[in-house]
Amino acid sequence: MTAPQIEIQLIAAVVAIACAIPGVFLVLRKMALISDAISHSILPGVVIGFFLTHDLNSPWLILLAAVTGVITVVLVEAIQKTGLVKEDTAIGLVFPALFSIGVILIAKNANDVHLDVDAVLLGELAFAPFDRLIMSGLDLGPKSLWVMGCVLLITLTLLILFFKELKVSTFDAGLSSALGISPVIMHYGLMSISSVTVVGAFDAVGAILVVALMIAPAATAYLITSNLKKLLVLSILFGVFSALAGYWMAHLLDASISGSMTTVLGVVFLLVYLFAPRKGLIAVMYRQRQQRTEVSLLTFLLHLNNHQEENERHINHLNEHINWQKVRSKTVVDLALKNNMILIDNNVVSLTEKGKEFTELALEYIITNKDENIEPMKEDFFLFRG
Amino acid sequence: MSITEYFNLLFTDYTLRTITLGTAVLGAICGMLGSFAVLRKQSLLGDAISHAALPGIALAFLITGTKDTNVLLLGALVSGLIGTFWIRGMVTKTHLKTDTALGLILSLFFGFGMLLLTFIQKQPNANQAGLDKYLFGQAATLVEKDVMVMVTVTGICLCILLLFWKEFKILLFDEDYTKTLGFNTRFIDILITFFIVLAIVLGLQTVGVVLMSAMLLAPAAAARQWTNKLSVMIFLAAIFGAFSGVFGTAISASQNNLSTGPVIVLVAAVFVIVSFIFSPGRGILFKQLRLRKNRRDLQLKKTLQFMHGIAVTHENIAHPHAIKILNNFQGFTKKTLQQLEERNWITLTGQQWSLTQEGFHEAENLYNQQTK
């Protein structure tokens, strides 16, 4: 690895961490799309800031652009307050308009601005090591590393200082204002930090991909854990891993670094989405199928319990009477047999002692409206689950 | 080229006519279908879908190697639909919320698309240039064939819309009721979503991936302010959309260096702002005026009520009182007293006021009237 390569990976990792932290809170507060809005609408701020400072890494530019981001949020909330349109429409109206202004500003001044729309969308991490911070002749490393390092430091300090407040205002706004922590201040604080982060990361990864770095690690981690601290740690891990893996993938394919970083994020998300232990797609579908079979089983047992006459309990009758398909009734009967709930004698099904006990207990819970007790009861009775 | 020149050329120049017609038709279909997106609170779905279409374009190019618009847009349609159904799957099967799902699909698909685009650019193939026009759209690349496709799709959309009008309408406003009536809500829902995706994909060439959502939303949000009737709203949205398309093209054609997409979006934004402020029923301006008027009216009636309180203690209600005794009551000025007199509720003589019969009656019935 050459020195620029190490520096690029360092920048990518710092950006990923700095994005992941506010991202977690945005996802938890159901405001993920605000990051999208901010990342688009800071463009006019960046362009105007660039006219004034002629330096993409100038702190003034970052501040100006971040203010544009906060203005977006205020504007969206103002439109929403008029009640003319819903929140999502308000977001969808504000940011394309601001972004259009930015694009037009760039297009009209294309000659004197070294800033093109592709760079805005994609960023160019590969060039980041060439823009160096030189102080009194001393090379201190790439500028964007310093910028993002500062942003990360600020974010981390605020996170540690206000962790408790952030937590309570995220999960229970009512409680937090009752405790004297203003949810409004927390909201705008988070928005400001997000804006600053987006602007800082803008240069490195571009407007839209910064959204991926904010939302995807948090969403991925959210599928695995519900603990806020673990959520933060996991999303930082996912972010950094994707950033580094993405860099090497881009190296291999000779393609855009930020594009491949997002692709890796996407692949990681897809894997977790499918295979997460409790909340993943496969786990959820498996659980749903299990529940469906067990509910059918209960219905079946109740039916048996209700009928003494043999023709109602004939095994072929079940297909007609409860209108189950063949496969389903076979699964249910098999499950019942495996759990020793029924006996089949001469094609006539009858409940065993255990089956009777289970059914009567379940029936009582259903009648007294305590359905939630059935789930733990299954643990006691079932040898095999559906 | 100035704008007037543009409109003169419009009737003679073939290219200009094609482009203008194309953007107008596009605006109309987007406005039409956007109305559904706005009313169904799916505004940002458009944003996600348009971004999600990008990898489809790139993949279609990689697989077929042609730059035929229809092939690329077919790819966009497929990947847009995959994105849409993944969003639905995510929201129904996991505990991730809609906003997270939208943001995820939007950014992940777009990032993947960008990866493919940069990958294509590095390929030793001279044919690859011009794919990035799908980012911001280039109306100048519209040819007659594209416009024909747009017109055909718009026609089909209109037919389906009229055919399923009742179903669409009822699903929009009361989904549960629709289900109890026995309609297949899933099918209708998918049909609407499919058409929204279709409209977005059609617009990619003109407005581009990044700004397509505004094209869908803005005309509909503007139209919503003028009416409470679905059919009128859709009609208005189509008109607004068409006009934004035409004006946007005109402005961008009359200047150098201006992509069509952002200009169309800004024109549409102007429509929205005007509608927000000036629409008679819901607009901010008239709402403020009404609020002021009501407040003044209330103030006036409060004064009258206070006077009534004084007058009722006297046998003769027309008994004159000094204006001074109103001083305890903050809500009066010289002007409001005059207004009260204008309405014939009191008579003013010098520094004295007295309630008229009419005013007494009005004050007495003040609360009764409101409950009526």
Describe this structure in words.
The complex is a heterodimer of chains A (386) and B (372). With 386 residues, chain A is mainly α. Chain A folds into 2 domains: 3-277, ABC transporter involved in vitamin B12 uptake, BtuC (Orthogonal Bundle); 282-381, Arc Repressor Mutant, subunit A (Orthogonal Bundle). Chain A has 17 helices and 4 strands. Chain B folds into 2 domains: 3-282, ABC transporter involved in vitamin B12 uptake, BtuC (Orthogonal Bundle), CATH 1.10.3470; 289-371, Arc Repressor Mutant, subunit A, CATH 1.10.10. Chain B is 73% helix and 3% strand. Chain B contains 18 helices and 3 strands. Chain B has a 3-stranded antiparallel β-sheet. In chain B, helix 3 runs antiparallel to helix 12 (212-224). Chain B is elongated, with a radius of gyration of 30 Å. At the A-B interface, helix 2, helix 4, helix 5, helix 10 and helix 12 of A face helix 3, helix 5, helix 6, helix 12 and helix 14 of B.
